[in-house]
Design goal:
- It comes from Streptomyces regalis.
- The structure is a single chain.
- It contains 6 helices and 6 strands, in the order E-E-E-H-E-H-H-E-H-H-E-H.
- By secondary structure, the protein is of the alpha/beta class.
- The strands form 2 sheets. The chain has a 4-stranded mixed beta sheet, sandwiched between helices. The chain has a two-stranded parallel ribbon with strand order 5-6.
- The N terminus is likely disordered.
C-alpha cells in the first residue's frame, strides 16, 4: 500500500449460503454496499466488475473482515428466524435521487412481516402517482433482503416483480410469515 492508500475506497466481499441460495455481500468503510442474489461464480464475477467500476476500487474477498462480519452474522440470524431487523450501517453510494429516497423509506418504515403497495410507498415519499417509479426503484435496490424490497407488493394482491425472481420473493415473505410456506 502506498502512502496515500489508506484514503482509497476499500471494498470487501464474501458469499453466504442461505435458504434462497448463495448471497454475495459487499461492504465499504461506509457500510454494507451491495447484496447480490444467486451468487454463482458467473453472477459474482459480473457483480464484482460492476462494483469495481462504480466504486473505483477492486473488491477483495475477505469473509473475516470486520466490515463484513456483522453483516454476515445478521443475515444468518435473519434466515434462521432469529432476527427481524437489520441493524447495519449502509453505504447508499450506489443509488441516488428518488430511488434512494424510496429505499430509505422502505428500510425504515416497512417492518418485518408486513407488506406495502407500490403506490402506498410512493405516497409515503410524497409522490402518490409514482407507483411505477417505485417499481423501478425496487429493481435498482443494491441491498435486497437488508433493504426489504420483497415487502413491496401490488395493491390488488399480486406479488409484484422481483429482481431475485418470484420464487425468492415468495420464500422471503414465507420466512417472515406473510405468505404460507411454499409446498414445493
Amino acid at each position: 500500500m502506498d502512502s496515500h492508500g489508506q484514503y482509497e475506497q476499500q471494498v470487501v466481499w464474501a458469499v453466504v449460503g442461505t435458504d434462497i441460495g448463495p448471497l454475495m455481500l459487499a461492504a465499504t468503510r461506509g457500510g454494507l454496499v451491495s447484496v447480490v442474489f444467486h451468487a454463482t461464480e458467473r453472477v459474482r464475477d459480473k457483480a464484482l466488475d460492476q462494483l469495481a467500476s462504480r466504486l473505483g476500487a477492486e473488491p477483495v474477498e475477505a469473509p473475516g473482515s470486520p466490515l463484513l462480519a456483522e453483516a454476515i452474522r445478521q443475515v444468518e440470524e435473519y434466515f434462521a428466524g432469529a432476527r427481524r431487523d437489520f441493524e447495519l450501517p449502509l453505504d447508499w453510494s450506489l443509488i441516488s435521487g428518488f430511488n434512494r429516497q424510496v429505499l430509505r423509506e422502505l428500510a425504515s418504515g416497512v417492518p418485518y412481516g408486513t407488506v406495502v403497495g407500490y403506490g402506498d410507498l410512493a405516497g409515503r415519499v410524497g409522490q402518490p402517482g409514482a407507483a411505477q417509479a417505485v417499481g423501478t426503484a425496487m429493481g435498482a435496490n443494491p441491498l435486497p433482503v437488508v433493504v426489504p424490497c420483497h415487502r413491496v407488493v401490488e395493491s390488488d394482491g399480486g406479488i409484484g416483480g422481483f429482481g431475485g425472481g418470484l420464487e425468492t420473493k415468495r420464500k422471503l415473505l414465507a420466512l417472515e410469515g406473510v405468505l404460507p410456506e411454499p409446498l414445493f
